[in-house]
Amino acid sequence: xxxxxxxxxxxxxxxxxxxxxxxxxxxxxxxxxxxxxxxxxxxxxxxxxxxxxxxxxxxxxxxxxxxxxxxxxxxxxxxxxxxxxxxxxxxxxxxxxxxxxxxxxxxxxxxxxxxxxxxxxxxxxxxxxxxxxxxxxxxxxxxxxxxxxxxxxxxxxxxxxxxxxxxxxxxxxxxxxxxxxxxxxxxxxxxxxxxxxxxxxxxxxxxxxxxxxxxxxxxxxxxxxxxxxxxxxxxxxxxxxxxxxxxxxxxxxxxxxxxxxxxxxxxxxxxxxxxxxxxxxxxxxxxxxxxxxxxxxxxxxxxxxxxxxxxxxxxxxxxxxxxxxxxxxxxxxxxxxxxxxxxxxxxxxxxxxxxxxxxxxxxxxxxxxxxxxxxxxxxxxxxxxxxxxxxxxxxxxxxxxxxxxxxxxxxxxxxxxxxxxxxxxxxxxxxxxxxxxxxxxxxxxxxxxxxxxxxxxxxxx
Length: 461
Hints:
- The structure is a single chain.
- 42% of the residues lie in helices and 19% in strands.
- The protein is an alpha+beta fold.
- The chain has three domains: 214 residues, Endonuclease, Chain A, CATH 3.30.870; 70 residues; 159 residues, 2-Layer Sandwich (Heat Shock Protein 90).
């Protein structure tokens, strides 16, 4: 994939020559795995190396750099960033016994900002891993469980000429003020050939890592094969359709019963009104059921993601429900920090997620209760919680609430509670954005729904 741009791009340098490096499209976890394999090799062989690194500025990405500081034999680690004092610098340790970490400020270039790299320079080994973040479009994967997240175009090389080419590109993008105070001589022997045994060990490490992942996956599949049923539409279980038939049949049966009773001349006054109300309620239930099914079916339509800042969206959604909360004498509020990174999710989907959860909380919270929405940043995820002081959910029911058509006892005692598809829809929407949802609750105390959504990498903002 060749990316044409007038801005400086290290990735483009690897694609413009007659012998361009082969590029592959990968996910963030694959890049992290490969970077970790190289660093583990450097540590294991105690290579006396110079390291240049520019990775996402979060703790999970920097764990291996910390390990290299503590256990490796590197001479220097250059931490490259567009910031003069990168936030990641405070996450790394600084003692006399450890490899010094030297911040290296690069020009504030939007293309360069989207690029990550790891360069290892030693007498017997040189290595380049370079990746550029791509925004990508959200679409449904073959499993139907989630949508494509931002991905990377990655190249890798152990050729000294290619590494030298990228080192030259980095030097051209270093802020001039930094050049005077930092030793930035990254020259390597022109005829350096990385030892074949080191490359062999690197490949073995990557194979071992992949084998571990495959073993864990096979174990999980074997554990679940006795409980999982054949997947049907939307990735939901096969019995979804059986439950659907029952749910469609039930309102029709109730309406037919009520209508037959209404034909009797013996039914008058309050009884007639009660049966008419029954017909109306069952029609509402049927309408809710059909509406919920249509919303689920629309999930199979490929959708493009938006970058959503929660402090822009959540206040507006919550304010829509303020009148209802005041009418029910419920305190409704939110806390959304202004500096949260965005999430990747279609705008209409996110609104639907929060609206469904607010509806639930307000419906099952008594007067003088409280419903609260808040969000925090946890490493590479945004955690959104919707908490209420409502009737709560019994422990034995918590694992069932996301099943299609399931209604808790609290729900079945409520009038006009819908089709039981609201939380099913919420879970499906969140999973398709690469997130997850969990719930904790105590009967009589309240319920908290927690959503984890991947934050958009800083390189794409």
